[in-house]
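Hi everyone, sorry if this is the wrong subforum. Our group has a chain we'd like a structural model of before ordering constructs, and none of us has done structure prediction before. Sequence below.
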Amino acid sequence: MTYLVAAEQLRPSREIVTAPYDPQPGESLAGFEPGDTVTTRDALYGLLVPSGNDAALTLAIAASGSESDFVARMNESAGDLGLSETAYTDPIGLDGGNVSSARDLVDLSTELREQSLFREIVDTERFTLRSPAEPIRIESRNALVLSEPFIDGIKTGTTLAAGYVLVASGTRNGTGLVSVVLGSPDEGSRDAATLSLMDYGFSLYDERALVKRGEKVGVAQLEGGGRLPLLARTNLKEVARTDQKVTVNLPAIEPVERPVTEGDVLAVGVVKLDGERVGEVEAVASRDVAGLPESDEADSGLPTWAWIAFGGAAAVALLLGALAIRAYRDE
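Answer:
Right subforum, don't worry. Here is the predicted structure as tokens:
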């Protein structure tokens, strides 16, 4: 959350002054000297790669002027994102009222992974901060980023209340996952649990054909009556769970004019997976359809119903005329 709020207010190229920070023994630091000038980009790297608490305070003061104002913005952002089990008392995250849940951490991480700079930073193994007066070499505290090629983030953490924590992300065969492990007794257990979660998650996904070529995806009405099945023109494959529901939504189609040739594209359907749009597929005619039959009536310019009505009216007129003549004679 410190990254999210700071990145919203500070351009990566902006120069900021590092804040004085008095760490407790064993705290993670970026290694900034108080009063030095660094770019926001370097401060963000120092925040996430080595989990620098000094970088966190520097970003907070640079973005909001004071730590308290920054924390207020953090809590506002948590509310905006619907993180109902999350609250902050400082921008660093040590014990003292900072709380969250696995669900909220997943939602926050998913939001952050929409940002390219964030993805770049959390997938960094080693980096040199060059904007300080003396360059600083940093290394990721996420051992899985260093050892597992498919792991591409995100953030470690350790507190007395939460134990050893890892919010991780990974990508395999086109599927991206985020996992959260809280309360581990040590780093080894935390990392092993993360890999087990990832393996389980990836096992649920596979590339499958959501729509197959030649599969019926809808029906169109024909001019003059009749119905024409519509088929998918191509395959559409996506990585998905086997239990996810696939739907193809076609737009409203006016009655199709005859003649029709098999394979004519008559509509474009939107393919959704559990209600989320994942692609499109062209819907084509399943067969040839002949044109409307020609008739003599058609040559006269009057439709068939008009000729029937005209004939009926003529018959009625003749009948009334006959009745009138008979009545005259009877008189």
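For your construct planning: The CA atoms of residues 247 and 272 lie 5 Å apart. Residues 304-330 form the longest helix (27 residues).
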